[in-house]
Design brief:
Aldehyde Oxidoreductase, domain 3; alpha/beta; 4-stranded antiparallel sheet; about 280 residues; 6-stranded parallel sheet; 2 domains; elongated; TIM Barrel; about 20% strand; 10 helices
Length: about 280
């Protein structure tokens, strides 16, 4: 899988270049003084392996790091984004200037291991609902400055993206409802502001659900509904409006929800509880 495969590919590509540039500035600063231990013209070959199983994501971020540091370095990929990895699998072979390889090493690995970790946990959730008509969505609970990168990684892992940010759809939550004086007022105002944008409303009770079901909204989010309340909500909706379950859902809870069959399940853990995949870059001796 590649960046070109997602609907927001151009925005993502621009985001990638900018975040990589900042990451290099952050790490290299005035120069990599330790790399100066190596003769300036020395070349080497290296490779990246994974020490644990997972799903790979982040190839193009890794490539962009090496391109910005030294575009003459060559990368020969053995694995692609979306590939399942086993411990000790070789991901990529690297050839070029030794100093540049060592300077790019940690920056490239940081992107690759973080996005692979995101794709790995997303894949676990995707498998939990495999064969069921339920879509697992990510959220805006992402690592700062890596929003689009992590959303790409959740997509690679088999889940889907919720809104990208605050600009592409309305998500009317409890504070918006309070500030507008009620759900109906908030929805009416949204229709005035941007009638073509999707509208999702968060509800915290069955009474709020009943109100939202009579309004022109696209999705209703069931916030922290327990299983009996979710079952009742699905009966009340009668498939008139799509429902999304949300609120500290883990793999076990999603398994329980499958029988209730909401349309969507949104999971903040996909991007905020990420454990980076254990990757290592080694120079060939």
């Amino acid at each position: 899988m590649f960046i070109a495969d997602v609907p927001y590919a151009k925005t993502l590509r621009d985001h990638l270049v900018r975040t990589v540039r900042f990451a290099i500035e952050e790490d290299v600063g005035t120069g990599d003084i330790t790399a100066q231990l190596i003769p300036a013209e020395q070349t080497a070959s290296a490779y990246v392996i994974t020490r644990e199983p997972g799903v790979m994501a982040g190839r193009e971020w890794f490539e962009e790091v090496f391109r910005q540091i030294d575009p003459t370095i060559t990368l020969d990929w053995k694995k692609q984004d979306g590939d399942k990895l086993e411990a000790n699998d070789r991901l990529v072979d690297i050839t070029g200037n030794t100093r540049a390889i060592l300077t790019a090493e940690r920056i490239g690995l940081n992107f690759l291991q973080t996005l692979s970790g995101t794709a790995t946990i997303a894949n676990q959730y995707a498998k939990a609902v495999d064969g069921k008509d339920i879509v697992v969505l990510d959220t805006r609970k992402t690592i700062p400055c890596l929003r689009l990168a992590q959303k790409y990684a959740t997509y690679v892992g088999g889940c889907q993206n919720h809104r990208l940010g605050l600009y592409d759809m309305f998500l009317i939550k409890e504070n918006h409802i309070a500030g507008c004086g009620g759900i109906a007022n908030a929805v009416a105002k949204a229709k005035e502001i941007a009638p073509d944008k999707r509208i999702e409303v968060e509800v915290e009770s069955l009474d709020q659900l009943q109100e939202a079901l009579n309004l022109p909204v696209d999705v209703i989010m069931l916030d922290n509904f327990n299983r009996p309340s979710t079952t009742e909500a699905i009966k009340l909706s009668a498939q008139r409006i799509k429902l999304e379950s949300s609120g500290n859902l883990d793999l076990e809870q999603i398994g329980e929800l499958i029988s209730d069959h909401p349309d969507y399940v949104s999971v903040g853990k996909l991007t905020k509880h990420v454990q980076a995949l254990d990757l290592s870059l080694r120079l060939n001796q």
